[in-house]
């Protein structure tokens, strides 16, 4: 269910983010959200998120967009970014776009949960890792998603992500293709600070 929600929110957020990026870079935060909503409203229909709730872009910080949504009546806040570089071995294997996703869900008491939508079905039982700030964190796999294996390390990982220049994620597809995605972390700290203000309850 979580993976379904994330996938739906990403689809809607990417659509809204593409439309609202220019407006979101304007200085007034309230105008940002209003313009992003207006852009999405006047454009062709975005992919519907779970429960019919489409994400709203509330700010763009470097490579990270900050969004809010209310799938099934429950507020979700998240930061989203695409990789700055991707490599596959063997090269040129087709895959869907990858995304890094940091979400907060107040109704579930979840704060800054990191997940990666990798863009392909991962090899069942395979080991994946997220490397940031000189440390490597083991990630468990489910479908096309990655989550930290040891939840007790997540807060430390997020703090490292706030301070580092980039994060590298490695995975293996069901067909044996090895991937390495690098995400710039420019703007992540500001995006998370904005979400902390907008997602208190």
Report the CATH architecture of the domain at 60-198: Sandwich
Count of beta strands: 11
Quote the average pLDDT. 79
Radius of gyration: 16 Å
CATH superfamily of the domain at 60-198: Invasion associated locus B (IalB) protein
How many separate helices?
4
Strand order of the largest sheet: 1-2-3-5-6-9-8-7-10-11-4
- CATH C-level category of the domain at 60-198: Mainly Beta
Q: What is the string of SSEs from the N terminus onward?
A: HHEEEEEEEEEHEEH
Question: For the terminal residues, how far apart are their CA atoms?
Answer: 21 Å
Quaternary structure: single chain
Q: What overall form do the CA principal axes indicate? A: globular
Give the amount of beta strand, in percent: 25-35%
The percent of residues in helical segments reads 25-40%
Brief characterization of the structure:
Helices cover 29% and strands 34% of the residues. It has 201 residues and is α+β, with helices and mostly antiparallel strands. Helix 1 packs across helix 2.
């Amino acid at each position: 269910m979580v993976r379904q929600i994330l996938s739906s929110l990403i689809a809607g957020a990417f659509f809204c983010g593409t439309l609202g990026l220019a407006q979101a870079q304007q200085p007034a935060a309230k105008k940002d959200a209003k313009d992003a909503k207006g852009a999405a409203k006047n454009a062709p229909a975005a992919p519907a998120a779970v429960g019919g709730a489409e994400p709203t872009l509330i700010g763009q910080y470097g490579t990270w967009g900050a969004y809010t949504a209310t799938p099934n009546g429950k507020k979700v806040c998240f930061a989203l970014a695409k990789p700055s570089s991707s490599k596959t071995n063997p090269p040129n294997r087709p895959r869907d776009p990858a995304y890094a996703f940091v979400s907060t869900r107040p109704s579930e008491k979840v704060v800054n949960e990191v997940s990666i939508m990798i863009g392909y079905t991962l090899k069942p039982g395979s080991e994946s890792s997220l490397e940031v700030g000189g440390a490597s964190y083991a990630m468990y796999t489910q479908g096309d998603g990655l989550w930290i294996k040891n939840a007790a390390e997540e807060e430390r990982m997020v703090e490292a992500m706030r301070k580092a220049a980039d994060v590298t994620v490695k995975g293996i597809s069901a067909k044996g293709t090895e991937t390495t995605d690098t995400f710039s972390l420019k703007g992540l700290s500001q995006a998370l600070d904005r979400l902390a203000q907008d997602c208190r309850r």
